[in-house]
Design brief:
Strand order of the largest sheet: 1-2
Order of helices and strands: HHHHEEH
Helix content: over 70%
Distance between the termini: 126 Å
Structural class: mainly alpha
Low-confidence stretches: none
Oligomer: single chain
Mean pLDDT: 76
Largest sheet: 2 strands, antiparallel
Number of strands: 2
Number of helices: 5
Strand content: under 5%
């Protein structure tokens, strides 16, 4: 039995447009591995072609059947948080609390180790110092004298360097003056 089809479905441009859409859908079904959708599309196309004998009408019916009726245009909901029950929420909360507690214990242990290290460092005197009768660190006399001697030596070396720089400056000035006298 053949149905009378409106003239719109006899238009070649519409037929080619629907053919392109159908090919894209078939490629999409194959690449996504939705073979059941491909079978539904092919069966719907074959049934519509047998019933109305018009390619554009058959493609439109097959697209409608596979995408809307069968659900191959799958819209997936990715928000699953509300789908959890109270038990799952409690388990998630317990996991987060245990992680936070472990992290707090780690931080407390690190802080305690830092305090112990600071106390040990506090009780030690720097190199070249010893504790006096009051428990305070003070410099050993030999070390203090050596520091004083080295400071005096450094001061003397600096003054000699300054004097040498002054002599070098005077020599440079005399050299320039001699050069001017020779040429001018």
């Amino acid at each position: 039995m053949k149905i009378k089809i409106p003239n719109l479905f006899k238009n070649k441009i519409l037929c080619y447009a629907l053919l392109v859409i159908a090919v894209l859908n078939v490629i999409g079904y194959i690449t996504s591995g939705a073979y059941e959708c491909l079978i539904v599309f092919l069966l719907a196309y074959y049934g519509a072609e047998q019933y109305c004998k018009n390619m554009a009408c058959s493609i439109l019916i097959a697209l409608f059947a596979s995408n809307f009726l069968f659900g191959c245009g799958r819209v997936k909901e990715s928000f699953v948080e509300n789908m959890k029950g109270s038990k799952e929420h409690m388990e998630d909360g317990a996991k987060m609390l245990s992680k936070a507690a472990a992290e707090a214990f780690r931080e407390a242990a690190d802080a305690e180790a830092g305090v112990k290290k600071a106390e040990e460092e506090k009780e030690k005197c720097p190199e070249g110092q010893k504790r006096n009768a009051e428990g305070k660190c003070e410099a050993v006399k030999e070390v203090a004298e050596a520091k004083k001697d080295s400071a005096e030596a450094a001061s003397e070396a600096a003054s000699k360097a300054a004097a040498a720089a002054g002599l070098a400056g005077e020599a440079e000035e005399k050299k320039k003056e001699t050069f001017r006298n020779i040429w001018f």
